[in-house]
Structures are given as structure tokens and as C-alpha cells.
């Protein structure tokens, strides 16, 4: 992001880590991939970058698979979950298909292993039909475990379907969701460009409700930060700035300023680096 090396040079360097098997290293790698994926969603390079990502993650995926091989290997199991989730975000068919298969078995009574359950849920929610999507809400209502409720409903935020995102956003402030959970669920809708835009509309339309519920609590700080710092254009910078000038969230002024600076940095990166990334992706 600092521009000290081109993004193409960075991606070339990153490619050399495909044989890495250390969890901590993969967390750092995945953070970089996540940021690039976010930024490139504002270009016509998303599909090319997804192909690069699938190729990059496929080796470690082939080694780890879905099945837990060693219950005591905590970092390996964390790595498995990370890899499955990233490949699901890249719409990697083998991961999506196996996740749907395991989800159906889970509903029928064969539980998904807890270490990969969240990743499998999110993979399914990102690419399922309406019946399966609504199954998440049924499971949410049927379970008594609060942790499982949160995991289920947060996973539905991975959907790339506008109607489903709206369904989830409306459900967020329903009596069925605890107030202390609602903001966490809301944040999970901003992981895609489509979800981010729809969540922004919902937030603006319900700003008074967010203030009433959370006031100066850190919940609103997280909401504002996660919602706005994924934008990446001068137009969005002006829109976010204008909204918060007219709708003050007391105690969160610095959060807004940080987000505005992030939006500005994103916009500058896109202007500076898009062609470099394009040349790299088209050369491999």
C-alpha cells in the first residue's frame, strides 16, 4: 500500500510462498490477499485475481483437505479453516461442493467438525439456493447454543445475492437477534462489494437506531470502521465525509477520520497500481 515496490513485484514475491505450511505465515499472507481482493473488486480484475488465488492456495489445500487429521494440532486446524474460507471466497468449486455436501449431512444429523464449521457455513451461504439459505435461519431458531446461533447467522453475510443480504440486514434488528449480537451480524455483510454497498444504505437509513442502541459504545466504532474503510473512491470519500458531518456519532469522530484516510489511500492505490496488477495477472 505504501508504494515502495509495485504490486506486481509483491505478487511475484508472494508466489514464492506457495509451499509454506506455517500458520502464522499464512495469516500474514491471507491478510494481504484479502486486502488485494477487496481493492480489485472495484476493477475488472476480480476473476483473474481469483484464478491466481485458487492456484496459489491449491497446494496447501490439497495437503490439508477437509478432514481433521490430528485433533491436537491446533495451528494445522486453524490453517485448514483459513484456507477453506479463502478458497470459498474465490468460488473454488471443489470447496463449495464439498461444503454443501457436508452441510446437508450436518442438517441430517452428522455434525461438521467445530474447527471447520464456520468456514463450511460461509462457503455454503456464499453459493447456495434459497432453500439452503433459509435453512440457516431454521437452524438458528432451533439451536439453544448462543455461540452456534452467532456462527450461523454471521455466515449468511457471505451471500452474494442482494435479496438475501437485505433479508439478513432486516433480520439483524429483529426481536430474534440480541442487541449485543446485532452489530456483529451487521459487520459480516460488508465482506463483498455488493454487501458493503447495501449495508451502507441500511446504516444510513437506520443511523438513529444505531445511535439509540450503541451510542458511544465501541460497537458503533467497529460498525463505522468495518463498514466504511472498505470503500475505495473519491466519490465515496465525499459521500462518507458528508454523511458524518450531517450525522454526528459522538465519541467516534476519530474512527471516521481514520476511515476517510483509508478510503483515500485505497483510491490512490487503485490509480497507481491497477495497471501493474493487470500486467502481472495477464502474464501468468
UniProtKB/TrEMBL annotation:
Residues 2-264 form the ERAP1-like C-terminal domain. One of its GO terms (molecular function) is zinc ion binding. InterPro entries: ERAP1-like_C_dom (IPR024571), Peptidase_M1_aminopeptidases (IPR050344). Pfam families: ERAP1_C (PF11838). GO terms for cellular component: cytoplasm; extracellular space; membrane. GO terms for biological process: peptide catabolic process; proteolysis. It comes from the Eukaryota. Belongs to the peptidase M1 family. This is ERAP1-like C-terminal domain-containing protein. The lineage of its organism: Eukaryota, Metazoa, Ecdysozoa, Arthropoda, Chelicerata.
Amino acid at each position: 500500500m505504501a508504494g515502495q515496490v509495485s504490486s506486481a513485484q509483491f505478487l511475484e514475491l508472494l508466489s514464492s510462498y506457495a509451499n509454506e505450511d506455517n500458520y502464522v505465515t499464512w495469516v500474514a499472507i491471507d491478510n494481504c490477499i484479502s486486502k488485494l481482493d477487496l481493492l480489485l473488486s472495484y476493477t475488472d480484475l476480480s476473476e483473474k485475481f481469483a484464478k491466481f488465488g485458487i492456484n496459489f492456495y491449491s497446494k496447501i489445500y490439497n495437503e490439508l483437505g477437509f478432514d481433521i487429521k490430528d485433533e491436537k494440532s491446533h495451528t494445522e486446524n486453524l490453517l485448514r479453516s483459513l484456507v477453506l474460507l479463502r478458497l470459498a471466497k474465490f468460488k473454488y468449486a471443489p470447496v463449495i461442493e464439498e461444503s454443501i455436501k457436508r452441510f446437508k449431512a450436518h442438517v441430517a444429523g452428522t455434525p461438521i467438525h467445530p474447527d471447520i464449521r464456520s468456514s463450511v457455513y460461509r462457503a455454503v451461504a456464499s453459493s447456495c439456493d434459497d432453500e439452503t439459505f433459509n435453512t440457516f435461519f431454521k437452524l438458528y431458531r432451533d439451536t439453544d447454543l448462543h455461540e452456534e446461533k452467532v456462527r450461523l447467522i454471521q455466515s449468511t453475510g457471505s451471500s452474494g445475492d442482494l435479496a438475501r443480504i437485505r433479508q439478513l440486514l432486516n433480520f439483524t434488528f429483529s426481536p430474534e437477534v440480541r442487541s449485543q449480537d446485532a452489530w456483529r451480524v451487521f459487520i459480516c455483510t460488508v465482506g463483498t462489494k455488493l454487501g458493503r454497498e447495501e449495508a451502507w444504505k441500511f446504516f444510513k437509513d437506520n443511523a438513529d437506531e444505531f445511535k439509540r442502541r450503541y451510542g458511544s459504545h465501541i460497537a458503533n466504532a467497529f460498525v463505522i470502521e468495518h463498514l466504511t474503510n472498505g470503500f475505495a473512491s473519491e466519490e465515496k470519500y465525499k459521500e462518507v465525509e458528508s454523511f458524518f458531518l450531517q450525522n454526528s456519532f459522538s465519541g467516534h469522530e476519530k474512527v471516521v477520520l481514520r476511515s476517510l484516510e483509508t478510503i483515500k489511500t485505497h483510491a490512490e492505490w487503485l490509480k497507481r497500481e491497477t495497471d501493474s496488477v493487470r500486467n502481472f495477472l495477464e502474464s501468468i
